[in-house]
Each structure stands twice: as C-alpha cells, then as structure tokens.
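Structure tokens please, single chain.
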Amino acid sequence: MKKLIITLFSLIFSVVALFGQTSNQTYFMKALGKKIGELHYTRQVSGEDVYFSNVGFLEVNLLVKKVRMDIENRIHYHAGQFISANNKAIVNGEVHNSSRIEWNGKSYTMQIDGGEKKTISSPIFYSGSRLYFEEPRGIEKAFSEASGIYMSVKPLGAGAYEVTDPQTERSMVYYYENGVQTKVSMKHPLLTVYLVRADAGGAAN
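Here you go.
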C-alpha cells in the first residue's frame, strides 16, 4: 500500500503547470473508470517571475483501508530558471511526503522528507512541472521537484513521452496533441491511473 501511495503522489506532485495566460486549470484523476481525485492550480506572472500554486486531493480504497491524500505545491521560476519548490502531501491527516528546494544564487539547498540537507551546484532550467505546458521536444531529462533527482525523458512517437524515475524505475507517459499536453498515464501492478485535463475531454465523474 505504501508503494502505491508514493507512486500516486509522484504523479500528482508534478502537476503545477503553465498554459499561456490561463490563471486557473482543473485536472481529473481517474482509475478503473472512476474519478479518484481533482487538481486545481493557479499561475501568477510578475515580470520575469512565474509562481505556481497547486492544491488537490485523491481518495482510494486499498483493501480494507480508505486513503485520502491532500497536496499543496508552490514552485517559483525566475528568468526561465527554477528557483524554489515547497511541497507537501498529507495522507489521512499526517504529513507523508514533503520537499523544500531553494536556489541561493550559487547552488540549491534541498531537503526531501525531512532528511539530510543536500546541495546541487548546477542551475536547473527544466523541471517536471514544465511537462504540462510544453511538449518536451529535444529534452532528455527533467528535474523532479518531489524527489530532487533528474528523470529521463524518452520520446515514444505520436506525441507521447515516457518519463522515468531512475531510482524506482517507475514511469509515466505524457500525451500531447498539436503540442498541447492532454493526458498522463501511469501503470501500477494494482491499477492504471490517468490524469486528464478537464478542458481536453476529461469528465468530472
């Protein structure tokens, strides 16, 4: 059960996106033909700064236990560079996952799930959130704001791209139509989860 929760969290965690000048967007999360969650985010632009705020939830019944996850993500870009991320997931009332990453002008300080602080010296210009506003043509890796590592990006053809976490080997497939992201799918031994934009054919139920 814990592995499934972490997998679902990884999918949700990256959904902080930018679509032109749109300030609000809704996603529906589905599994086995039923809606199991929603994601709502806002985007604010101030000069060269772009701020993303994302809140959402999912509810699943795992064997005899009901699991509810509430999330809140805040990400900042400046002049095209990833600057900071503050993210948290609460499962059944308790903090389950969290990350805090900040650029100090020379390097990033990173703390994942309250663990030991680490640093990354190289500036980051492409993180997982960008997968939701532009097709990753020519992109080979994307930084994960959740785990603090780089994920590989592999084109599959027909507007589909496989994004893989090298540590867990879990993969998600992102789908695009005419350069616009429309859906994400994630296979798990227990079920396949889909994340669909409401204005791209997603249904509320």
